[in-house]
Design goal:
The complex is a heterodimer of chains A (about 220) and B (about 90). Chain A has 7 helices and no strands. Chain A is an all-alpha fold and about 220 residues long. Chain B has a two-stranded antiparallel sheet with strand order 1-2. In chain B, a hairpin with a 5-residue loop joins strand 1 and strand 2. The two termini of chain B are about 20 Å apart. The chains are: A mainly alpha (about 220), B mainly alpha (about 90). At the A-B interface, helix 1, helix 2, helix 5, helix 6 and helix 7 of A face helix 4 and helix 5 of B.
Chain lengths: ~220, ~90
């Protein structure tokens, strides 16, 4: 059964979309920076980072567009119930899940240096299967995202230990907050306030990544 | 350049390109060997990579000796190196 619900407290509807716009802009800036440095270094590794964040950015765009369409449906056609807007909500949610998970998957394949074709095919198939289940059940989506983000945090932790720069710790802190945000989204069925907390953690995580980018550009 | 730490791939690329820039003209491989502090085989690998990326080009002097010089892409790489290194180290690329 497809379970798509409006999330969080009523006052937060729309605010979440605004927060996702900001997060999406930061993801796009990381894409642009990766592209710039890929061209400069002529090294495809930068493309993997940029590609992952590009998919995450498209996920945010899908989510925000569906939210805007829902607003319009309420205003113009007089839709009043969740059933009236369920199609738009479902398409937006499905696109967000698939693009977001694909983005994280690209980052994990890059972070774990999975280059063997068979290993890659196995991980992609398994993740895609779970992601499709995640479209139907948000809990599965958040659990999958949480697992993928934990792998990324482990990678960025080792990187921060190795390089020990403010920026490398900043990236780790940013991704740690994105991971905590997923945990908060998982707890949302217990209390709607967790949804607000999850979005706040996600926004702060992306702002930290933005600060890292500013730090890089100032060099 | 390396602050006592093991040089990364990016640092070695920088050292080779910076040696070419500082010389302000074509340079013989022996001089690069001394400047980059690499074994002959490793330097050859780096030079092949830099040629493939078109950061350097091979020229032959009037005595028929092989020399290397920076290209425009090589100069651009050096200009943006600090940013590139900060970005690379931040994300562990």
């Amino acid at each position: 059964m497809v379970r798509i619900l409006l999330h969080g407290p009523q006052w937060f509807f729309g605010v979440d979309a605004m927060m996702e716009v900001i997060a999406g802009i930061v993801a796009l800036l990381i894409v642009l920076a990766s592209y710039r440095y890929m061209r400069m270094a002529k090294d495809p590794r930068y493309g993997a980072l940029g590609g992952g964040f590009l998919l995450i950015f498209i996920g945010f765009v899908s989510q925000v567009i569906s939210t805007i369409l829902i607003y319009q449906q309420f205003r113009t056609s007089g839709a009043q119930t969740v059933m009236d807007i369920s199609n738009t909500l479902f398409v937006g949610h499905a696109a967000q899940v698939l693009f977001f998970v694909s983005g994280l998957l690209v980052l994990v394949l890059w972070a774990l240096k999975i280059n063997d074709k068979m290993h890659k095919a196995f991980v992609i198939t398994l993740t895609t299967f779970v992601a499709v289940l995640g479209v139907l059940n948000p809990v599965i989506f958040h659990l999958l995202s949480l697992a993928l983000l934990l792998f990324l945090c482990a990678k960025f932790f080792l990187n921060a230990i190795e390089h020990d720069t403010v920026s490398s710790w900043g990236v780790l802190s940013g991704f740690s907050l994105l991971t905590l945000a997923r945990l908060a989204f998982l707890l949302e069925p217990l209390n709607a306030q967790w949804y607000v907390g999850g979005h706040a953690a996600q926004l702060i995580g992306y702002i930290l990544l933005l600060i890292v980018l500013i730090q890089v550009v100032r060099k | 350049m390396n602050d006592g730490k093991k040089r990364s791939h990016l640092d070695i690329v920088y050292d080779i390109l910076a040696a070419l820039r500082d010389k302000k003209g074509p340079i013989v491989p022996t001089h690069l060997l001394y400047k980059s502090n690499l074994s002959h085989d490793r330097l050859k690998g780096y030079l092949d990579e830099l040629k493939a990326k078109q950061f350097i080009e091979e020229v032959t002097d009037k005595n028929g000796r092989k020399r290397y010089q920076l290209t425009d892409a090589g100069y651009k790489f050096l200009e943006g190196f600090q940013q590139l290194r900060e970005f690379t180290d931040s994300f562990g690329l």
